Amino acid sequence: MRLTAAGFRLRAAAEVGQTLEITRIGLGAGHAPDDISTMTALVDERQSAEVSLFDAQADGTGLVRFFLSNAELDTGYLLREIGVFARDPDSDSEVLIDYTNAGDDTDLIPAAGGATVVEQMIDLITVISPTDNIVAKVDSSIHVTRSDLEQLRVLPYGGEPGQVPVINAQGEIGWGEGGSLLALTSLAASDINSKTDILRQEQYLIRLEQQLQQLTS
Fold first, then answer.
1. pLDDT digits (tens, 9 = 90+) for 175-195
2. Model-level pTM greater than 0.85?
3. 3-state secondary structure 132-180
4. Exposed, middle or buried by CB within 10 Å (0-12, 13-18, 19+), for 3?
């Protein structure tokens, strides 16, 4: 990611105490101009994504995470350009502050309803500055990665450190190293073939929760 002129200006303002608020991510199919510093918008924006996570790093960069999906995309496109937008406190308008372009190394994002479903969590490393005055408008939706789930391996209802609740073929609950309740939430989309399968998983979770509660009563 490279800063635009607006990005440099807002970064400088953040360094002297003004808040820089990242608002969203823009994705498009346009080719980069010769000078990106004067850009105020994407060349050919096709999608917009909300920020799922923002984490300022000590080296003056920032990790901006967003969820890319083609679930509501009417027309497919070649993903070539990505931009980070922020609120300009002077005009209260939205401006492009960070930009990158892949040139010919594009990815096809197909329209919804086809054979290909796009659901990706993407991390951008943005150029900001070492300051606490940079924040982000974070989407309230929940999107988790495998590493996020691993960090959530807590110890509900007892058990030993490092163990998770498991259920055997007879429906009996114990403690072990696999088959956790959390693991069920990370089923790959390819493992779920129909709404019937989804309903079956929901019923399984409800039964498992009931049995866990009985263990503590």
1. 665 444 444 444 444 444 455
2. no
3. CCEEECECCCCCCCHHHHHHCCCCCCCCCCCCEEEECCCCCEEEECCCC
4. buried
Q: What percentage of the chain reaches a pLDDT higher than 70? A: 59
How far, rounded to the nearest angstrom, does the alpha carbon of residue 190 sit from its chain's CA centroid?
Answer: 20
Residue 143's identity, in one-letter code, is H
CA triplet 142, 28, 20: central angle to 5 degrees?
A: 60
Taking Cα atoms as reference points, which of 22, 17, 57, 18 lies closest to residue 135? 22
- What tokens does 91 get? 């005009």
**Strand pairing of 173-176 and 164-167?**
antiparallel
Element (H, E) at 14: helix 5-15
Q: What is the DSSP string of 177-207?
A: SS--HHHHTT--GGG--SHHHHHHHHHHHHH
Q: Which amino acid is at 16?
A: V
What is the 8-class DSSP label of residue 33? P
Q: What secondary structure letter does DSSP report for 126?
A: E
Structure confidence by residue, pLDDT tens digits, 5-32: 998 888 888 777 777 888 999 999 999 9
